[in-house]
Structures are given as structure tokens and as C-alpha cells.
Amino acid sequence: MPHAVNDSVSLLIIDDSAGSLELLSTALKQDGVSIYTADDPESGLELVYQHHPHIVLTDLVMPGLSGLEVLDRIMQFDPGIDVLLMTAHYSTESAVDAIRRGASDYLNKPINLQVLRARVNALLEQARRRQRAAHLESELLDAARLDGLIGNSPAMWELFSKVRRIAPHFRTVLITGATGTGKDLVAQTLHRLSPVARGNFVVLNCSAVVETLFESELFGHVRGAFTGAASDKMGLFEYANEGVLFLDEIGDMPMNTQAKLLRALQNQEIQRVGSLTARKVNVRVIAATHQDLRAAIAEKRFREDLYYRLTMVEISVPPLVERSGDLPLLIRHFVAHFARQYGRPISGLTPRAEMVLGRHIWPGNVRELENVIGHACMMATGDRIDVPDLPGYLRSSAGEITRPAAQEQLSPLDEQECRLISAALAAARGNQSEAARALKIGRDALRYKMKKYGLEASLTPEQCH
């Protein structure tokens, strides 16, 4: 049971000696630290899964499970937990093995309480710093926003500044940038910060419109203008009157439609297809493209006069690779977003998952990152995203072990583990979440072991050999 008054940081002690538990919990008791104790490893692991302590102090030699096995289970559950092993049978080899497997420290019994307090206090302070850092990151995320845009890199501060200056005054704007950089978010922000924020924000994706219907989509038509025109139709220009029309992927607009768009921009009037009457409109136009429009002009695919009309103001959105300092902020934003959307208690990523995302070059930019975090939040079983929760192409780049069992003979211990996993999967009828709960491991750890042994949910224990 906890001995402290608040749960800001927590510590779990696992030891089969009641005297050691009392001695250690008394020695480590302090304000602001919750201390949990368990006198057997299985109960200790239950407390790990239930309370997710920051630090675990465990004996090495215990009945049932050894301290190293407890360490392995904890590392599978959350490699961010600091685990200290205690033993009366110290050896350099066992200490190195424990550290290699993820232990934070390896202490010799009888425990020097002064040394133990110093080491535990250092780890507790690290945990408090991580909590403060997470709080500061949250505050920074709030400060590093401009409407729907997020960033704290120099490139994004420059973008924010430009958007703020342009929004009150623009008539036409061209937004350029690679696919997935967030050009649509820039357009929405310009609209919301403009004097016509209460007007409509109307979107036309030029790459999704059939060429013969472009003019009707933009300017509308009158009844009988062409076959199938059974009634008058308002075009998007009219619908966006006193608001903003966003023309996404304008580089895909046909040349003849470009000429009519230019006239509409110059005169602020449109003419419905089949009508002889011009209609005045008051529309601000934002265009966006991932193409090089200058190259398109040279290839006679884009009108030069329209280009200069649109580029009275031009905004370039930087790719994610040029704003790497924004990656933690964006990850935190998307984790919070998808945790709310899916109703999941996910607070962040494990250090090794952060490392994988930090190494990736993000060719799909912010949209790719959003999809990756959305996938991971859906797959995660704990309160933090780990490498096995990431999409396959990122797991492969992380060097995930995928040895099938058929490639080499299993050791007796591995064969026993394989049989236990297969039996749990069979009992759960292939439901991995249910099997993981029965085995008291995370679903990510179960998936890892299934890959390690080449298991499918339908395999039986007899196929572990």
C-alpha cells in the first residue's frame, strides 16, 4: 500500500523478505513519493501494471520469478520505468547482463541505505524533471500555436508572422509547399484571422474535378445551359461571396478555366454558364499547390498572367524535415488529439519510440506524422506508444526481430514460453488483447513474441518445437 500523501512520483519495492520490505520502505519514505510493496514477484508485476510506478526496486533471487525475469516483464511493459536490482550474489557478469537488459542499477546486499537513498533520490528527481518537462511542453504547445498551426521552429515563427500580417489585407494569396505540409491549415488560418472570418470558407480541390465541369463548379449555370442542367445552380464563387474561396492544387486547373478565373479575380464578377448577365461578387481567393508553377508556365500548362495575379502575396510552407525541432510538439498534439478521439488514456511515447520517429525523414510531412500517431494510438494497449505500435515500415527501420521459429530449434525455455503463448491465444480464440491480459504482458510484448516464435493466432502449443 502507498505510504505517501500524493502520487506525483511513485516507487515499488519487491522482496520476498518482510523484514527487507519494511526496512527499505521506511528508509525511502519521503513526502511526495508513493511507495508500494509486494512480497512476491507476481504480485509486484500486478502493481506495476496497475500503478505504473516510476521506479521499481526488486530482489534478484525470489521464488517463482527471478529479478531478471521481473526486469524483462517490466521492460516489455514500459522500458521507461527505472528498475534497480538487489542481490546478495553479486558478480560482474550478472551486473553487466542486468544493465544490458534494461536495469538502471545493480545493488549488492546488504544494502548500504545511504547509497540506496542517494541513487533512488537521483532517479526520483529525474522522474520529477520529466514531469516538469511534460508540463512545460504542454505550455509550450499552447504558446506555439497560431489558430490551427503548430510550431516553435524559426521557419514556423516566420510563417506565423507572415500570416498575421497578410490576413487583414489579402485579396489573393498563393500557398506553396510539399504534399502534407499543411497548406490547407494555413488557408483556414488566413480566413479565420481575416475581416471576413464570419463569411463562408469554400473549398475546391482542382485535382478532383472533371475538366468539363470546372466552369460550372466555379461560376454556376442556368437551366438548359447544357444537357443535364435541369435547374439553375449557384457556383462556388457566389457561395463564397463575402468570404474566402480556397482553390487547392490549382496547378491542375485546365488552361481555359484559368482564363475565366483570371477575369473573375480582376473584375470581381462572374457569369453563370449559359447566362448573359454578369454578377458582382466580393470574394478573397487563396490558391495552393505543391507544383512548381514557374516550370508549369514554361511548359504552357499554367497562365503566366494568372500566376502573377495570385502571387501578389506568396506563402511557402516548410517541410517537416526543415522544422525538426517541432517534432516533439506535433507528436504531443496528435497524441492528445487521438487519445481524446479514441477515448484512450495515452500520455506519450516510450523513449525508443521517440528515437524511431526522430530518425525518420518524414517524406509525407505532417500528414504522414498524423497518420502514424493515429495508427499507434489505435494499436497501443498501455498508456504510452511503443515501437510495436508503430506502422510496419517504421518498425522495420527500427531493426525489429522477426525470426520465425522454423529457422532454428528453440531452447527448452523458449519452447515453454512459446507453448504458454500459444495456449493463451487458443483460449482467447485468437483475441490478442485477451491473451495478453491472461499472460500479464502488454499486447505489444505479445505481438513481439508471436513474431519471435513465428506464431499465428490459430497455432496450437504442439506447433512450438
Overview of the structural elements:
The protein has helices spanning 18-28, 41-51, 67-77, 92-100, 113-143, 154-166, 183-192, 214-219, 236-239, 255-267, 293-298, 304-310, 327-342, 351-359, 365-379, 392-397, 412-427, 432-439, 443-452, and strands at residues 9-14, 33-38, 55-59, 82-87, 105-108, 145-146, 149-150, 172-176, 201-205, 220-221, 233-234, 244-248, 269-271, 278-280, 284-289, 314-316, 348-349, 384-385. With 465 residues, it is of the alpha/beta class. It folds into four domains: 9-140, Rossmann fold (3-Layer(aba) Sandwich), CATH 3.40.50.2300; 148-316, 3-Layer(aba) Sandwich (Rossmann fold), CATH 3.40.50.300; 320-397, Helicase, Ruva Protein, domain 3, CATH 1.10.8.60; 405-463, Arc Repressor Mutant, subunit A (Orthogonal Bundle), CATH 1.10.10. A five-stranded parallel β-sheet has the order 2-1-3-4-5, with helices on both faces. A five-stranded parallel β-sheet has the order 9-12-15-8-16. β3, α3 and β4 (82-87) form a beta-alpha-beta unit. The radius of gyration is 30 Å and the shape is elongated. The model is unreliable at 1-7 and 400-408 (pLDDT under 50).
In short:
The protein has 19 helices and 18 strands. The chain is an alpha/beta fold.
